[in-house]
TrEMBL record:
Coiled coil: none annotated. It comes from Micromonospora olivasterospora. Residues 14-176 form the RDD domain. Its main location: membrane. It is a multi-pass membrane protein. It is found in: Cell membrane. The keyword Cell inner membrane does not apply. One of its GO terms (cellular component) is plasma membrane. Pfam families: RDD. The chain crosses the membrane at residues 20-43, 77-95, 137-156. This is RDD family protein. Residues 185-207 are annotated as: Disordered. InterPro entries: Pra-immunoreactive, RDD.
C-alpha cells in the first residue's frame, strides 16, 4: 500500500498544477512591470541589433549565405543587456520577496489558494528565508546572457517538484526549508490564515 500523503501542519500539499499556474500569474505581473520600467532599454537594445538582422534577412531572400561584412551591434548593446537583466531581476525581487516574507503568498499563490510555509512551523517565512527561496530561482536571470544557462537552471528548478517525494519541494523550497500547502476553502482561506484543527480529526503526518 502507498504511504499516506504528508500533511504539513495539518494542510494538504499543493498540487503541481496549482503551483505552475500561480507561478505563471506571477511571471505575468513581473512581465508587465518590465514593460513599464524596462521597455525603453529593451527598445534601445533591439535598435542596436536591427541593422544586423535586416541584412541577414535580405541576404537570406537573395540566397546569399555569406556572413562577411554584416553590420555589428553598437557599443551600447552589451551595457543595455546588462541593464535589462539587472532591472528585470530587481523588479522580480521587489515583487516577490516582501510578499513571501509577510504571509508566504504572492498574487498568484493567493489567487490559487496556496501558501509557502516553513517545514518546521506554520509561521511567516521572514525576510531571510524568503530571500533564500527567491534567490535560487530568481538570481539565475542574471545568467540569461550565458547561452541561456540561467533559463535552463530556472526550468530545472520549476520542474523539480515533480520528482521530489514526499513533500514535493522545488529546489528553492529545499534551500529555504519551505513547503507549499493548499489552504482550506473556508472564510479567511485566501488571506493565508489556516483554520483551527478539529481535535476529533487529527491533522495527519506533520514533518
Amino acid at each position: 500500500m502507498r504511504p499516506p500523503q504528508p500533511r504539513p501542519h495539518g494542510l494538504p500539499l499543493a498540487g503541481y498544477g496549482a503551483r505552475l499556474v500561480a507561478r505563471l500569474i506571477d511571471l505575468g505581473v513581473v512581465f508587465l512591470l518590465n514593460v513599464v520600467v524596462n521597455g525603453w532599454f529593451v527598445w534601445r537594445y533591439v535598435e542596436e541589433f536591427t541593422p544586423y538582422f535586416r541584412e541577414v534577412f535580405r541576404r537570406g531572400l537573395a540566397n546569399n549565405p555569406s556572413t562577411e561584412g554584416l553590420p555589428q551591434p553598437g557599443e551600447q548593446a552589451g551595457g543595455l543587456q546588462v541593464a535589462i537583466l539587472l532591472i528585470a531581476t530587481a523588479l522580480w525581487f521587489a515583487y516577490e520577496v516582501p510578499a513571501m516574507a509577510g504571509n508566504g503568498q504572492t498574487l498568484g499563490k493567493r489567487l490559487m489558494g496556496i501558501r509557502a510555509v516553513p517545514v518546521e512551523a506554520d509561521q511567516p517565512l521572514g525576510f531571510g528565508r524568503a530571500l533564500r527561496r527567491w534567490s535560487t530561482l530568481g538570481l539565475p536571470t542574471l545568467l540569461w546572457y550565458c547561452c541561456g544557462l540561467g533559463l535552463l537552471l530556472q526550468l530545472v528548478d520549476a520542474a523539480s517538484p515533480l520528482f521530489d517525494q514526499p513533500l514535493r519541494q522545488a529546489l528553492h523550497d529545499k534551500r529555504a526549508q519551505t513547503v507549499v500547502v493548499r489552504l482550506p476553502h473556508a472564510p479567511g482561506a485566501g488571506t493565508g490564515t489556516a483554520t483551527p484543527h478539529d481535535p476529533a480529526n487529527p491533522p495527519g503526518d506533520t514533518p
